[in-house]
Design a protein that fits this description.
The complex is a heterodimer of chains A (40) and B (360).
Chain A lengths: L11 E3 H17 L9
Chain B lengths: L4 E3 L3 H38 L9 H14 L8 H4 L2 H12 L5 H32 L4 H25 L4 H28 L4 H11 L3 H11 L1 H16 L1 H14 L9 H8 L3 H13 L5 H24 L3 H5 L3 H28 L3
Helix pairs in contact in B: 1-2, 1-14, 2-14, 4-13, 4-14, 5-6, 5-10, 5-16, 6-7, 6-11, 6-16, 7-9, 7-16, 8-9, 8-10, 8-16, 9-10, 9-14, 11-12
Chain lengths: 40, 360
Amino acid sequence: MPKANSAAPARSISLDVYAVSLALLLALLVRLNLIPPVKW
Amino acid sequence: MATVTVSARGPTSIGRRIVALIPGLLLLAAVGYAGKLIEHSIAVYTKSHHITFPNIEYVLWAIVIGLLIANTTGVPQVFQPGVATYEFWLKAGIVLLGSRFLLGDVLHLGGISLLLVAVALTLSLTFMHLLGRTFNLKPKLTSLLAIGSAICGVSAIIAAKPSINADDEDASYAIAAILALGAISLFTFPLIGHSLHLSDKAYGLWAGLAVDNTAEATAAGALYSDAAGKVAVLAKTTRNALIGFVVLAYAIYWSSRGEAQVIGNKAAFLWRKFPKFVLGFLLISLLATLGFFTKPQLTSLANLSRWAFLLTFAGVGLRTNLRELGKQGWRPFAVGAIGEVFIALVTLGLVYGADRFLHL
């Protein structure tokens, strides 16, 4: 009999969450002018 | 894209992991920046010598340099953890790219993408299963190839593997086939797009709908033009958002046959499989639409996104080992290749139709 799929391990964090956090942090720093204008 | 998980461990372990990333990150930066320098140098040289030469984007140079390293000297072990972060930069870059879209554009193009994705998804899943049966592939390998080519390449395969109880060998075959085909599409899509004189929007939509892996779809779009790259990311992000629904449908199918675990809480399952960077992209786009950022700040965010993509494109080349890809059996590759050509043609037809009737 197949078992029910358990939830993801409680102590693991998806890579997405780290990437989104970094991007939002950078956006906030840019908004508050805490980093110089980024050139390309 | 792969859903890599990072476990919370002791501070020493985290510190060591971060240090282990540095050599590979430096390599990504060096390869990406070398691509940018080559593009710039060629542009300066041809301009000063009055030579007419097509502008070859840094994207292609970064990928080619990465491919050369990976397939000649190979990427030494010490660089590998850092090189593997290219997906992290891809996701961060996509979130920051949200600043270049007004939410209205996202809803308009995203809505069209969603409509086209639904049609392409149904056709491609059906076609891949017919092909799998014709080529006598194992049913679960066919499922993985179908999910990978219809939705989101490697990450969809990784998301689906435990849900349908597929074995490691099937997943490796499917991933290798999707990666090999992604590498081929990088070089063929821009050529086809130019020969058909597709507009930036039409080409970007096509690349986002037809190229499997998000990194390759982003690169294939950027190789055409900056504007096409933007649209390709949006279309691909829409496709990624559907990953949970397709994986859930397959999980239910295989569990009904007693060959996979039963899904308990379906809403929790969908949330777990949902790519969270899509929400970050929408949030930044909403903030940009509401005027939260000034114009120079929006330029900075767009440039940060470009730098993040530069690391990604270097990683695409560095992680593509052509010899390893060649070691897979020919049948999964053949099924994947025929399926990809089918999907590329179907999506091209859909994009033509959308361009004409829905006014991209």
